[in-house]
Amino acid sequence: MDRSGGRARHSGDLIASLSGRNPARNLHSDVLWELGLAIVSGQYAEGEILPPDSDLLDRFGVSRTVLREALKTLAAKGLIEARARIGTRVLPRNRWNLFDADVLAWFFELGPEVGFLRSLAEVRIGIEIEAAALAAERSVPELSAALIACVELMAIAETPADFARHDLEFHRLVAEASGNPFMASISALVEMALTAAFTISSPVNDPVALGVTVSVHRRIAEAIRDGDSHAARLAMRDAISQGFDRAAGRMEKEG
Amino acid sequence: MDRSGGRARHSGDLIASLSGRNPARNLHSDVLWELGLAIVSGQYAEGEILPPDSDLLDRFGVSRTVLREALKTLAAKGLIEARARIGTRVLPRNRWNLFDADVLAWFFELGPEVGFLRSLAEVRIGIEIEAAALAAERSVPELSAALIACVELMAIAETPADFARHDLEFHRLVAEASGNPFMASISALVEMALTAAFTISSPVNDPVALGVTVSVHRRIAEAIRDGDSHAARLAMRDAISQGFDRAAGRMEKEG
DNA sequence: TCGATGTTATTGTCATACTATTGCGGCTGT
DNA sequence: ACAGCCGCAATAGTATGACAATAACATCGA
Q1: pLDDT per residue over B16-75, tens digit each?
Q2: Cα Rg, chain B, nearest whole Å
Q3: Which of B222, B217, B144 minimizes the C-alpha distance to B178?
Q4: Which of A10, A114, A192, B15 has a CA that sits 20 to 30 A from residue B213's CA?
Q5: A97 at the B interface (CB within 8 A)?
Q6: Cβ proximity of B143 and B135 under 8 Å
Q7: What's the CA gap between B222 and B66, in Å, rounded?
Q8: Chain B contact set for A75 (CB, 8 A)
Q9: What domains appear along chain B, each with residue ranges and CATH number?
Q10: Do A134 and B120 touch (CB under 8 A)?
Q11: Does any CB of chain B come closer than 8 Å to the CB of residue A180?
Q12: pTM exceeds 0.85, yes or no
């Protein structure tokens, strides 16, 4: 069940391409993704010790440098911890940095479960509601206009990918308008959530769903423009809940 | 040559020791912290290219292995991106993973500005309000009891450090009770915020402040026990706001 | 003028050796 | 028989030097 059939790459590429990133394709990244996936999938359980360097070296056929840099990267994301004579231990899940784009991508690579998507929607609600409220309080005409424009682009989007792009841009703008650097830092989270939702079920092909989605986003934009933080809160909650409900409903129907 | 004065270590130790972690003391970590601080402080500005490996090698007096692993760690946290022939570029701040414990620690190391503390309080409000509400909805007697017990420990804490420990444990329990893994993952954030607040001004030595703080935490615990998500929301908001107000007020008074 | 091409500075990768840390098991002394 | 010390060995940490891949830039040619 390995992906060793030639140079087939991890499918994080899809997500990366949507977000406009251009991740380097090097050995380090290959090893990183394979180990990252193995850990997130539970193939190496929490608290377990992974094979020693020498074994992993054989397995991947790379130099010690590459392997160790991959391990350092995993350690930086809170997935593992290396200690001399003990080995490299998988840390408990609550130490994992779930707000990291790669870690999230690994979860999605395994096929996101509905419970995971729900958790994601819950944090998004918490953070983005507050972002919307702050954006309303600190409303700047320029950004408000950009938000409105973004909604119009969503309304006329012709492909699911276009729609997702403008949706993502909308949420990014709200974060920016909040003036809080932490809000902007969760764009990876939003990106994943939207990518998942868009993959599972895009509203583009369903006129009714499209209308609902656009209108709730318009409510957000207008509330921010008008400096109405209460309305912004409510609208943002609706927007995220609806997105999740649509995806979850679809998953249920199909699965 | 190493940094003047022998083995003087970065002061993140204080934070680490409070939180019970036992960070490795190795060369890699030294280089990491020095570069991390330099970047966060703006000594290397966004978009700027840092000196090439060879220069940094001279500067730190370590092997290429160590330097490169430190750089990989910084890259994993979203602070830099290295490309052949170009150099190693400092990424724009919105790519930084502010939810990373190290990155946060570097911000605090520079002396947290009141605006930064406010931003932190804002995200905490967003996330922890939702966590408290979820905890109320999914209330489990066992955890509710633990929360109540935690409050009692806060009430009788004799030193600021003890108080901070129980405070931290309280918020950790709420996150756990929410049943949402993302909520637990932000403990690093809470940790930093509380450590900062505790450093700036602990309520332990002020009976009135202590009473207020304890009572608001008790309100949270009771609301969760009673399954009252609305009350839990309100109380959690109060708790975080009060903590921030106290620290901010103290900062203002002093300077 | 512009496009192809070589040059070169910089990161990426490799191989090997040595050092530091620390759990474990055996040794020693009581 | 037991406790504590102590050295062994397994593992990650560090060092060094070489070569490969990449891509901006200068150079050359049409």
Answers
A1: 444 444 556 789 999 999 999 999 999 999 999 999 999 999 999 999 999 999 999 999
A2: 20
A3: B144
A4: B15
A5: yes
A6: yes
A7: 50
A8: 73
A9: 12-95 (1.10.10.10), 112-254 (1.20.120.530)
A10: no
A11: yes
A12: yes
